[in-house]
Fold each of these.
Amino acid sequence: MGVFSNKIQREELKAGDHIYSWRLAYIYAHHGVYVGDGKVIHFTRGAGQEIGTGTVLDRFIFSSSPSHPADNTCPNCGDQSRLDGVISSCLDCFLSGGDLYQFEYSVSPAIFLVKARGGTCTLAASDPPEDVLHRASFLLENGFGVYHIFKNNCEDFAIYCKTGLLVFTSISVGRSGQAASLLAAASAVVSSPLRFLTTSSGGLAVVGYAMYSVSRLVSDIGIRRDITKVPVERLVSRAHLEELEVSPSAATLEEIPANAAKEQ
């Protein structure tokens, strides 16, 4: 993989890899975990519900669910276009005609900033493949909560499978680099007091990009402090997770209230 592209070939895939494919003219990417034998486990919503608002806005982003013409469904997967939640698909259905990319872990801050597009890498380290596959398989059977474009999306699912990390504050986005980049871009445009220090277009661009880069970096799970590691067997519903306002520096699994955690 190069500095500016994470594209890989199918023969390079290994079980436990976090992969993704761009959708809708590179506006967003769909993420999943490759589990071997040409299969991918991923978290999705049904057709027309990708952003999950229940409004007309849902129609502007195509579903990440695999889709085929009604008279030509996948012989391996069938018609999965209306499925919600954690599903298993063949690699072709997951890619939906797009190219194959691999999400990178344990990158340096410099590489993270060079890869300015969110949702391609993180400073956080990946766990061993056997742990990644165990989480993905468990969640395929037990679910990953309710889909939310900012707090619990397909990238959040793949990152959790790779790291076991969960966000425990209700005021911030999830682990998704795509969501963090979107909010960072908005913040750079409307929230930076530094933009008043210059009136030149070049100066505004530099200030805006600097704010965007800093916002992305501090939102990455390899740096942020509002995360803690939770075994997949004790994964709780998203509603309960958002009620736990804990400090990851002091939080341990024993500090998670017993009535908030449930054995799946």
Amino acid sequence: MFSISIDSTFDASRREQVSFVIRYVDDKFGLIHERVIAIKESPITTGKDLYSLFVAIMEKEKLNWKDCLVGQSYDGASNMRGNYKGLQAHINRECPQALYVWCHAHRLALVVKQAVSCDSNSRDLFGNLESLYVLLWCSKKRAATFREAQKKHSDLKYTQQHAVKRVCTTRWNSHSAALNVVFKFHHAVLQTLEEIKNLEGVTDATVGANCSGLIEYFTSRRFY
């Protein structure tokens, strides 16, 4: 008997990757084992498509899931936990003993996120980090400008270049990663925003205003 956990995320090239992890107890010692059995790209992540991918993986690994699957754990997205069209519903129709449990790690991340969001300073911090990510990530030219800005600072000359990180609601460590990049490359971030403001802000008032707002925030005492 075994249980399965499935999750999806974007990789560095912005392609959706779906991981399949099984947990089982060995017969000899009664120890719990956890194994990654597959990581597959899936641009479409509806419940039905994920179910088809799940069945294909089970067949490839020769796992008798209809008789031996006893548990399934995913995040709380509708394509995963939906009662009618979610992945767990498709599996339950063929394997009713496979109990669905909302992943506790995802639930904890949402609780922490909600607790932190009760403070207006925290909301502004992570909101501006996400705005910075959207501004730089949507354009290859802006991303290149940020990389060049990192090279121009002598104290960062031999430091590996980084991209801005996204603040993800289901992964709390993404908040730390996004903040650390701005702390580590603070001067480069400000220089990049200034260049975008001066070059693109002249013809695009929205971009110019966004850059001005981010510069003002990342140089304010509220940020520090």
